[in-house]
Design a protein that fits this description.
This protein is α+β, with helices and mostly antiparallel strands. It has one domain: Glutaredoxin (3-Layer(aba) Sandwich), CATH 3.40.30. Helices cover about 45% and strands about 20% of the residues. The protein is built from nine helices and nine strands. The strands form two sheets. It has a seven-stranded mixed sheet. Strands 6-7 form a two-stranded antiparallel sheet. Helix 1 packs antiparallel against helix 4 and helix 4 runs parallel beside helix 9. The longest helix has 19 residues. The two termini are about 30 Å apart.
Length: about 210
Amino acid sequence: MSLTQALAEAKQEFIAHTPLEIQAEMFRQIREQHESGFVYGRQEGQRAKDFILKNALGKTISLYEELSKGPVVLTFYRGGWCPFCNSQLKAYQKLLPDIQALGGQLIAISPQSPDNTLSQQEKEELTFQVLSDAHGLVAAFYNILYEVPDYIKNIMKQIGMDLAEYNATNRWILPIPSTFMIDESGIIRSAYVNPDFMQRLDPDNILYELRKL
């Protein structure tokens, strides 16, 4: 199943099993972010911000050190609780050999706690770097961090999801789902930033962009 198909199925599941009032609020958030006029994300041609984060096993990972090995596909996702994120990471895991064959590496970042990152990595059998940005500092560097609005916070609490607790922080924050293609000199060569969390960069586009580096 392609990522497009998996995301479409996840959206159908969401629509079929989610009360209409909750759907309305979720789609309201997407609409408001699209219509805000705010330009999310660092842009093509800009220098990627270096960062140092820990992976699921507690090892420190530096973006610029990883770039010394080859170009990096850097993707930000919401967390292991998000079915759209899980579909994305599974598809990217399948793509990993092709990314590596082109000399690239894959790094995924979410604000979830290291414990939840480790659980997700083990459950989904992810073999690329999965890093924890619990306070959202790196997402803020890339201009994709936002405070979860109260109406979404209330919905998440209703379904038993305490995002601050899940992320082991005192803030309700999330990144706009994004994928940046960064060359070895640290320049962003393409950027996919989409407030619609039900959409993600297609694997074929990743390979297309990597071949251009």
